[in-house]
Design brief:
About 55% of the residues lie in helices and about 5% in strands. By secondary structure, the chain is α+β, with helices and mostly antiparallel strands. The strands form two sheets. Strands 4-3-5-6 form a four-stranded mixed sheet. Strands 1-2 form a two-stranded antiparallel ribbon. A hairpin with a 4-residue loop joins β5 (about 375-380) and β6. α2 packs across α4 (about 70-85), α2 (about 20-40) packs across α6 (about 120-140) and α20 (about 405-415) runs antiparallel to α21.
């Protein structure tokens, strides 16, 4: 069965992981923690912490909270919301999952509880990323997308199980039961995009918590269906629309999800990154946004049709702005970057007007290249009759070498320059640290 094979392949992967894999995982942890500090004052973070508060005190830390401790599942939930709070988290393009929002809080939360080494936590992170990506390979169908399912919510629970099961040292049978329970907890729809509501920030967190609960249940003796993916009433049929052609996992060190995931260059939806990059290039040419009569964003169908991305005129809420191709391009043309401050308060009238003059068009060539590439170009028609065009870079992402700088910029106002720099130094290595010591430093 699929989950049995997945458990076997993940177990075989662990001893094959190299220092390079662990160092990459350390950067993923650092990137996720950067978002926790940057978003610590946002309303949805406060909402998640209120849930943890209602659950009472416990042994697991809520990061950047000033020392709050709650039960493991509640702390993982709150920390996951922090990782997702800015929409600035990492992305695995093939699975459409934000793996760091699930695997990092699950691995570091369980790692703290069991007293794991840093290397152990990083291995768990790798396993969590891989489990989500592997499940997506069999269930992320056209029907999945058309029905409005959210990949992070659907595939996230098994990722949290993979991370937590490794650190809890579950045997194979118990791990499969936990995976089955987690698959039965898959959930998440994208109606938040047209509605402009905030459940988007809680979906990966609910997935992470569901995975933790699945592991705790399995440890206590609960059972889950090993056929929960390919069975007649399994995840593939329920979410992917078909029970045929499930296939098997294909875990290989040559193409791990931890290496395929990218760090966002801009705090916005992953499908907007390349269009924003093209707009930044146009801004560098000194084009006055008021001189633009019409703008056209050429992108893939995946980007154009993803919930909330083709939105030219509804910007009342932060998430509506963060998801919109038109808003991101208009803000980048105006400012030369996409600043998080543009998501706060009343929308700028000039940006809103420019977004309203912007349309999204599917480019067949970009469509064929997706998801290996997420290219975009922006065309501007100007009042003087001139037309100018800019194409995005082939890869639009924050370079791995720049992740420590992102962390220091967002964490130093809370921790101080020295403390933030030391955490960045520790995490830029193969795991020569202890989970409890690291969590203590997070405040």
């Amino acid at each position: 069965m699929y989950l049995d094979e997945l458990a076997d392949q993940l177990a075989a992967l662990t001893p094959a992981l190299t220092d390079d894999h662990l160092e990459r995982a350390g950067l993923c942890v650092l990137d996720a923690l950067a978002c926790v500090y940057g978003g610590r004052k946002l309303p949805w973070v406060a909402h998640a912490r209120a849930v943890a508060d209602a659950g009472g005190a416990g042994e697991s830390a809520v990061w950047a909270s000033g020392g709050a401790r709650h039960g493991l599942a509640d702390a993982v939930f709150a920390n996951s919301v922090g990782c997702h709070s800015l929409l600035y988290e990492d992305t695995h393009p093939e699975s459409r999952v934000h793996p760091g929002t699930v695997a990092v809080p699950a691995a570091l939360g369980v790692g703290e509880l069991v007293g794991a080494s840093g290397a152990g936590v990083l291995r768990a992170v790798v396993l969590g990323y891989e489990a989500m990506a592997q499940l997506a390979r069999t269930a992320l169908t056209e029907d999945f997308v058309a029905r409005g399912w959210r990949a992070s919510g659907v595939f996230g629970p098994v990722g949290a199980v993979a991370a937590a099961a490794y650190l809890f040292e579950l045997d194979r049978a118990t791990t499969v039961h936990a995976l089955g329970i987690a698959a039965g907890s898959a959930a998440g729809v994208c109606e938040w995009a047209p509605a402009g509501t905030t459940e988007v920030f809680f979906q990966p967190a609910s997935a992470a918590r569901a995975g933790i609960v699945a592991v705790l249940l399995a440890r206590a003796g609960a059972t889950g269906a090993g056929s929960a993916v390919e069975g007649p009433f399994g995840l593939r049929r329920a979410f992917g629309g078909t029970a045929d052609g499930c296939g098997e996992p294909d875990v290989t060190t040559e193409r791990l999800a931890i290496d395929r995931a990218f760090f966002k260059a801009h705090p916005s939806c992953a499908f907007t990154q390349h269009a924003i990059d093209a707009a930044v290039r146009l801004h560098a040419r000194g084009i006055d946004p008021d001189s633009v009569t019409t703008a056209t964003i050429h992108t893939s169908a995946a980007a154009a049709t993803y919930p909330g991305c083709d939105n030219a005129d509804s910007f009342a809420t932060p998430i509506a702005r963060q998801m919109s191709l038109q808003f991101g391009v208009a803000a980048a043309l105006t400012d030369g970057l996409l600043a998080p401050g543009r998501y706060e308060g009343p929308v700028d009238a000039g940006i809103a007007a420019l977004a309203a003059r912007t349309r999204v068009v599917v480019d067949p060539a970009y469509d064929r290249a997706c998801p290996e590439r997420l290219d975009a170009r922006v065309q501007l028609d100007l009042t003087d009759g001139e037309t100018v065009v800019a194409t995005s870079a082939e890869h639009v992402a924050l370079a791995p070498a720049d992740v420590p700088g992102k962390f220091r910029a967002l964490a130093a106002p809370v921790l101080g320059e020295a403390a933030a720099g030391e955490i960045a130094r520790v995490l830029c290595g193969p795991g020569e640290w202890a989970a409890r010591d690291l969590v203590t430093r997070l405040g």
